[in-house]
Amino acid sequence: MALIDGAEVAKHNNKKSCWIVLQDRVYDITSFLSKHPGGAAILLKQSGSDATTEFKKYHPLDYVNDLPPRSCLGAIDPNTFGSLTRRKDLEDRPSSEANTGQKIPHISLCVSCLDFEKAAKAVMPRKSYIYASTSANTGASLKGNIEDWERINFRPRVMRNVGDVNTQRSIFGHNSPYPFYISPMGTLGAIHPGAEPEMVKGAVRKGIHMVVSTASTKTTEQIMRSMVEEQKRMNYASPTRLFFQFYMPVNRERAVELMHMVKKAGYKGLWITVDTPVLGKRESDRVLQAEEALSVGLEKQSTSEWEVGGENAFAPAMGGRVVSGQLSPHTTWGDLKWIRREWDGPIVLKGIQCTEDAKLALEHGCQGILLSNHGGRQLHTAPSSLMTLLEIRTYCPEVFGKLEIFVDGGLRDGSDVLKALCLGATAVGVGRPYLYALAAYGSQGVERCTHVLYEELTTAMRLLGITSLNQARPEMVNASRLLNEMWRPENTAARSHL
Ligand code: HEM
Ligand SMILES: Cc1cc2nc3c(=O)[nH]c(=O)nc-3n(C[C@H](O)[C@H](O)[C@H](O)COP(=O)(O)O)c2cc1C
């Protein structure tokens, strides 16, 4: 087949005829524009040009196989890459105009979790920063997550021998030096070129557990392989284990296929996200999408025409856009029956937000619950996980001891971790701080973030007067302020459901 000239490709740079180059092949993606789950605008930005670098940020290479038949037009003439369109005018602006040109701070200057965000903002493309930092609606859920940790105080004991401290915890029998783990976050390819494997590398080196997202840039197997390779480099001395976060696809066969893949790859537990029957309204994402559409002249297209994906059968996008077919709004408690038949390992429900559902999780044979509002990205004014933890302690204490209870959302300090453990949590998930650490410093950032949290935790334990996490008790914290605001059945019209 004759090679295609770059100058020819460059001509097809609009929505009527849109060609892109991926690796050394030319693709006509005109008919795919309106079906792309990530939106048409991002593809049009790449029209007539080599989209390989941008593509790899978001997708495994084998995604090209999912394009409609006959999309591949042939190979590009390698001598004509120079004639392709260079869309410099549309390149991503840095996330913070003020930081442009600023040098990234030395990693040793990151002494708290919040410092990683500042560093990341200096280097992250604006789109990636918006994806990471965005939250639902006015941001009230995210704000509540962060603030509630500071509304609980410790009740320290003094004059105790706190020379040596032990911070070990286990998740479903898998020991870890830490009572915290890395929360699942999608699309890490947009955060660091090394994507999920880079995060895994840092995790393995420090021995921290990690939950891998269904919406990852790399495949389930690639991510597991990267863990095994890093383990090998460390003579298998790292206790790190990977768990899998599961978004339920609408199609059951696909769901089963994914579960089998996850099992075969060796993931140690299935964390089913239950707070996302639909995507929350992430406002900054929406503004960005509108800006992108305007920048490529799509403003005349009605939003719905371009945003509703077609009959796609891919992994979900979690970037503020609904991916049709990938998030099932139809999942119910009854589905746990067939899920259990397909998956014999531990099941955690991620996104439990009230007592009633905690009880149901126990009744339905789950092994764990993760109290979470998805980092404030889903329901506007959802309860913080801390508030839910207090509610569950008050109204269904029977789940403690029978389920492993995790919390996440807004934890930015090792002492926040300790508060959750005092109140009975098994372990806590940390999301954005790890993402920002990865963005700014790659796997070294992941290691550093773990170290920072660990140091804060051990200091807090000593100052609280304990030497082991088994000594953490509810009476070591004063949660009165939150308890005053906690939901109570007597304040609700319908009381019969508890
Ligand atoms: C050419 C074949 C392509 C296919 C088959 C494809 C497919 C998909 C699919 C299935 C998703 C849903 C989420 C996911 O699985 O990650 C998605 C999202 C997305 N895609 Fe593509 N895509 C293609 C090209 C591109 C290119 C060239 C770019 C960038 C220049 C791109 C950027 C994105 C972005 C930004 C998202 C949203 C991710 C998020 O917000 O998390 N895609 N695409
Ligand atoms: C950028 C980003 C992507 C996320 N992607 C997913 C995901 O794919 N699946 C999921 O269940 N939760 C996802 N979450 C939610 C996290 O797992 C976790 O619940 C939340 O980030 C914890 O809050 P924190 O970021 O304040 O620590 C994501 C969160 C962020 C910030």
Shape: globular
Assign the CATH superfamily of the largest domain. Answer: Aldolase class I
Q: How is the biggest beta sheet arranged?
A: 8 strands, parallel
Number of helices: 17
Strand order of the largest sheet: 7-14-13-12-11-10-9-8
Which fold name corresponds to the CATH topology of the largest domain? TIM Barrel
CATH class of the largest domain: Alpha Beta
Number of domains: 2
Poorly predicted regions are: 96-100, 301-320
Could you tell me the radius of gyration in angstroms?
24 Å
End-to-end distance? 70 Å
Account of the 3D structure:
The chain folds into 2 domains: 6-90, Flavocytochrome B2, Chain A, domain 1; 114-278 and 327-488, Alpha-Beta Barrel (TIM Barrel), CATH 3.20.20. The chain has helices spanning 6-11, 40-45, 52-58, 113-123, 126-133, 140-150, 195-206, 220-233, 252-265, 283-295, 303-307, 335-342, 355-363, 385-395, 414-422, 432-464, 480-485, and strands spanning 19-22, 25-28, 72-75, 153-154, 169-171, 174-176, 180-182, 210-212, 242-246, 270-273, 347-352, 368-371, 404-408, 427-430, 477-478. It is globular, with a radius of gyration of 24 Å. α7 (195-206) packs parallel to α8. The strands form 4 sheets. Strands 7-14-13-12-11-10-9-8 form an 8-stranded parallel β-sheet. Strands 1-2-3 form a 3-stranded antiparallel β-sheet. Helix content is 37%, strand content 11%. By secondary structure, the chain is of the alpha/beta class. Bound molecules: protoporphyrin IX containing FE and flavin mononucleotide. The site of protoporphyrin IX containing FE has 28 residues, from α2 and α3.
